Amino acid sequence: MEANSSRELEARNYLEKHRIMELLTYLASALLFFRPEKPREYLISILERLRIAKVSGVAFPFFMDNSNIAAMFQMLDSSNKGSISFIQYKEALKTLGLCTADEVLKDDGLGITCEKFMREVNKRTQEIWSAF
């Protein structure tokens, strides 16, 4: 039993260290968002762009630009208040593969504006890609 626990712990640590689960969740979210005709080729192209960006030092490939992020925010802000709740914010990050269910985020009680939402989505996306 001990060997299995040790292997499971090693595997979990490896996945966390290399942020593999975040990458896989993000790739799955991108597939569901864009719904390409050829999903395997689409995933290969994403990973190839990531490899090229890493080798050449160019900007990492972002698959949701600010207009996509703003559109998502507007869907969440159905009453046009200009902000969304912290719960909506965390769920959106989880849906995009940018936050885990057990991640602790700090709620300042002020609500989340579109600018803050875009900034956080872009920051978290950059963190995921630069880990590779």
TrEMBL record:
PANTHER family per the UniProt record, alphabetical: EF-HAND CALCIUM-BINDING DOMAIN-CONTAINING PROTEIN 10
Pfam families: EF_EFCAB10_C
Domain EF-hand: 64-99
Xref: SUPFAM superfamilies: Dimerization-anchoring domain of cAMP-dependent PK regulatory subunit (SSF47391), EF-hand (SSF47473)
Name of this chain's protein: EF-hand calcium-binding domain-containing protein 10-like
Gene Ontology MF, one: calcium ion binding
Organism this protein belongs to: Lipotes vexillifer (Yangtze river dolphin)
